[in-house]
């Protein structure tokens, strides 16, 4: 297990200071990890800047770059069980999620963007200027700072890393301090794949390291996934420096259950969409708008399904929901549940920390409130935990307005047997992705990102190629 930082191809302990990364299922220390700050960020950015222009990287043929990404994908696949176990131990998610979703998704993204490496083309265009040949080319942005979150550390790092490398950039990765271990292991595999020194650098640490990366004058682009509050600060810093930025931020996804919906299917899909990774998903379905005639039936079935979920350490076979990531986050989730009670929502199940054999970890029972109104805190603020709110509606015409009455716009879902009704509503909801009769899904070929306070730009697909390249115009006189 690597606990040092990777800078310019060397594993570096920095100043010698460390911080503990904890197992959220037990609260025990897994390892002491090197704590980087501004000095280490500067060294990593300088290394990335040198590598950006080196013959080994800048002169590398696109087909060779593609082979490196494919080799890295193969190595992740070969080490899938180890990576899944590391992710589960450090983050808490069940092995079924780390091994069945996160690791395969990382492999998929590397292979997808390896395919793009040889297909990044410019255009030629007829101009109104006589005797001129005009064309464009796409070039790397430069040194990219990749700041990744703690909920899916490995997977989301690859979402950023794969297109950044496919387009010829170099990177400095700053993983979340709560979950650094899988990012360090991925960096080790990148070395094994043959990616040149300095192209991929990883600096572990807290907010100081992230701020130094955002502010460094040689960083051309920041790609950040995390909270909206931090995203706003990054956007402000990047704006002052005229630095390119991509932000995938918070969400408060509405789930609309029409009167004609298959309630049992909607309950099952919403349990998956709302409680995956203990609700620590930015696209989690968390506020449910149910036709008033079906409200009680849906709420009762949702609560029954939530209360039946098996809590436990992610490494245990049969665990359906693991712990929250930290004691601090557990306290924050409990605070929101307290607000729901105080504001008059009806608690149907959950609402407390798990005890008994789970008392040493950060486990919170899946929680369902009914009788929630639009003005309640639990209906408006992102909780990022296993807390689901059921609201009722009488007039379908009010649904789009109520679903849009939020600062967020990352994802939404509509449940209805009437495909025309579902698609009309999907067109009116302001969200980056709208799902119809299904839990949230992701694919490397589908753009991902939010509207409003849920972010700027898109990840995945050709959109990610655009995000990590600049367009240069080349004019040639034919006279």
UniProtKB/TrEMBL annotation:
Family according to the record: Belongs to the aldehyde dehydrogenase family.
Pfam families: Aldedh (PF00171)
Name of protein: Aldehyde dehydrogenase (NAD+)/betaine-aldehyde dehydrogenase
UniProt keyword terms in alphabetical order: Oxidoreductase
InterPro entries: Ald_DH/histidinol_DH, Ald_DH_C, Ald_DH_CS_CYS, Ald_DH_CS_GLU, Ald_DH_N, Aldehyde_DH_dom
Organism superkingdom: Bacteria
This enzyme's EC code(s): 1.2.1.3, 1.2.1.8
Organism of this sequence: Lipingzhangella halophila
Gene Ontology MF terms: betaine-aldehyde dehydrogenase (NAD+) activity
Span of domain Aldehyde dehydrogenase: 11-474
Active site (UniProt): 248
